[in-house]
Amino acid sequence: MEQNFNLIYQTSFEKNSFLELQKYCTNLISNNPNKIFKSLDFSTTPEKLLISIIQSDNLQMTEIQVWENVLKWGFAQNPGFPSDPSNFSKDDFNSLKNTLHQCIPSVRFYNLTSKEFFYNVVPYKKILPNELYMDLLKTFLDPDSKPIDKPKPRKGTNNSSKISSHFQKRLEEVETEIHESTTYYSQETDINESTTYYPQ
């Protein structure tokens, strides 16, 4: 089941009947985000799933790690981008802005340090909403200023989630469905290939 966790998690977002499983998986990921962010198929993570993770108050990551992984995902959706944003064209910035449009509101920029903001966010200022960027700039330059809407720090803890028997069963059921679906498709393909008519 461990090796199919990402597939199970993604599947939980496809059906309303898996809403409870979806919430559980999100909590599990919050305690062990590397299951997603360090996985080989992170680049194919659906946007909805990524947003669900970075919205979590209990996510076990610093905010700079969240931002770096959001950027990593954005770059993966736009292969061919220069690695250095100083070499971006106007179209590059616009493409990345459109890609991350739904993700950016879930990044808690106000919880970054001024150094992190300067080196990791300012180079990408063109993909941020102008009002947000100007308020962040004012906040980091003037400690006495009040941000428009400063989110609370994440409450991530080091407590590992234990899989209850109920959710263990649900995870196994979803894994079985995925396996059966894959097997059926494979068998159908084999049958079609074996019955293909080849002229003599």
UniProtKB/TrEMBL annotation:
It comes from the Eukaryota. Residues 145-166, 178-200 are annotated as: Disordered. It holds the Pfam family BACK. Residues 156-166, 181-200 have a biased composition (Polar residues). Residues 17-73 form the BACK domain. This is BACK domain-containing protein. It comes from Rhizophagus irregularis. The lineage of its organism: Eukaryota, Fungi, Fungi incertae sedis, Mucoromycota, Glomeromycotina.
